[in-house]
Design goal:
A hairpin with a 2-residue loop joins strand 6 and strand 7 (232-233). This protein is of the alpha/beta class. The protein has helices at 13-20, 27-35, 44-55, 64-68, 75-91, 104-111, 151-160, 181-197, 215-218, 236-240, 284-294, 310-314, 329-340, 346-357, 366-371, 378-394, 398-414, 457-460, 480-483, 485-492, 519-529, 556-564; strands at 121-127, 133-141, 165-171, 201-208, 211-214, 228-229, 232-233, 268-269, 300-303, 321-325, 439-440, 451-453, 466-471, 532-540, 567-575, 590-598. Belongs to the UPF0758 family.
Length: 600
Amino acid sequence: MVKIKDKPAVERPRERLLKKGPDALSKSDLLAVLLGSGIKGKNVQQLSQHIIRKFGDNFLNITAADLQAISGIGQAKALQIVAAISLVKRFFKPCEDEIQIINSQDVLNVTSEFRNKKKEHLISLYLNARNGLIKKETISVGILDKTLLHPREIFSPAIESNAASLILVHNHPTGDYAPSERDNVIIKKLIEAGQIMGIPVIDFVIISSKGCFSFFNSSNKVKTLDYIAEGELRTLWDLLEEDKISYTKSFTVASHHHFKSEEPPDGHFSLQNRRYLGNKYRLLGFIEDIIAEKCGPVETFCDIFAGTGVVGERFNDREIAIISNDLLYSNYICLHAFLGVCSDVYIDVQNKIELLNNIEPKEENYFSENFGGTYFSNENARKIGAIREHIEVISSDSDEKNILLCSLLYAADKVANTVGHYDAFRKKLDMLKPIRLQIPHIQYWNNQNNEVYNEDANELIKKIYCDVLYLDPPYNSRQYSDAYHLLENLAEWSMPAVTGLARKMDRKHIKSDYCQKNATSAFANLIYNAKCKHILLSYNNTGETKDGRSNARIDDKDIMQILSERGSVEVFEKDYKAFTAGKSNDENNAERIFYCKIRG
C-alpha cells in the first residue's frame, strides 16, 4: 500500500485543497480530507473511494452505524462525516410548501390579485426545473410598450434566481382579454430571447376581470393543457414557432420553401432538437429563399462551420451532396450520425439504445466524479459515464458508435443543470429528471453522396469544391470550445484532468481563430482558397457592447472588401435579436447574409 505521505504533494487531497480550492478535488478526495487518515491496508484515498462506491446514491443518508460497520472506521470519524452531511442538508433542504405551476389554471391562482387592477401590469413567474415557483415579480406597471420593454428586465431576475424557465402574465384593465398587437410583438421577442438565454418562456397569459387567454393553450399543437407532458417540458418556442420569417431584402424574393423537415416519430429525436448558441434553425427559410433566388440548381452544398448541422440538413436531398464540417468532435459525431451514415442500422441501434437505457450503475466513474452534483444529478452523471464506457464495448463499427454517442450527447444535454451551455452550471441542482436515450431520426437514403469532416475550416477549404459555400463562423471572442467543453470531453472520452469551478479540460487544440485577433486574416485566407460558385456568409452585426467579448471580430468593411475581391456582393438582413452581457443596441442588431457570386 502506498502511503499518502509518500505521494507527490500534487496528488495529496489536503495539499491540493490548500493550493487549488475544493473545486479542484473529486468527491472521494473531499471525503479523504474529512477522514484525515486511512485504515490498515488502505490509505485515506483508497478508503474514501471505497465508501463512495459502497453507498453510491445513498451516501447522503448514511448513518454513523453504517460507517462504523466498515472495519477500521471508529466512532469519531463516523460522527464527523455524518455531522458534515447533516450540515449541508440543513442548508439545502428544499421547501416543502413549494407551489407547482402545472398549467394556466395554476398561473391564474397565483396572479388573481391582478385581474381587477386599474393599471396594466406585467408579471413574471420564475420556475425551477420541477416547475416549482421560485418567485413572482412585477416587471412593469403602466402601458406595456414594445419599445420600452427590454428582455434584460425579464431575464436578469431569472438568472439571479437560477430559474429554469418562466411564465409571463399581463392584465388588461379594459376587460378584453384577447391579445393585442403589442402583446403578439412582445411575446415573439421574448420567446426568441428565452431560447438564446436557455431560459424558455413556457406561457404568456392575458388576464382581465372578464376572463383570460393563454398563448400555450391556444396552440393547435397542444394535446393536453399541462405544461409538462410525458416527462417533457413544452414551451412557446416549441408550440408557436412560425415557418415563415420576415426579413428586409434588396430585391423581391419568392418564398419557395422546397425542403421540408419530417417530424420524428415518438421515441426519436431530430437533428435540430438540441440547445446550441447561434443555432440557425429559425433562419432556415431566410437562407433557403436567397439560395433559391440567387444560386439556381445546387448539386453540392458545403456547411463548413456546421455546429449542429441544421443548415446542411435543410438541403440534404438525394440530388444534393452535402459537405458538413465542424472543429468540435462532439459536433462531428452528431453530423456524421445524421448526415454521414448511409446504411440502415435501425434495428441494431434500437436494441442497443434499449440496452443502454437499462444500465443501472452502482459505482462511481470518471464522469460522475467530475460532473455529478454540479452539471448533472449524481444519478444521471453516474449513468452517463457508465453508458459512455459501454458504448466503447458494444459498438460494431464507427457508424453505429457515432449514432449511439449522438443519442447520448442529446440525452445528456436535455438533463443538464445549465442555461443551455457549459460555461457554468446552475448553483441550485434542480434538474432531476432521469436521463433516457432516444433514437436519432436519420434519413439514410439521402446520405449516399455526403461527406462529413472534423477539421479546421481553413485547411479543409483547400481540399474541396462545391456549388454553394455557406459560412457561419463564430462572431466574437467567445470560444465554442469553452461553451461545450463538457460534451467534447464526453465525446472524446480520453478522460483528461479537469480544473476550476467549471471543470474544464485543456482546449488548446479546439480554439478557433475566428474568436481571436487574427479573425480577419483567417477569413481572408478562407475566401481566397474557396473553390465554389456562390458564397453565403452569416454574420451578426453585434456592434459595440459593454462586454467586449460579445463584439464582432470582423468589421463589415473588411467583409465587403474581402468578398468583393472574389465577386459581386449583396447583403440581406433580418431582424434577429442577439443578447450579450452588455447593453444591446436594438436599432443596429440584425442577422445578415452576405451573398457573393464568384466571378468566372
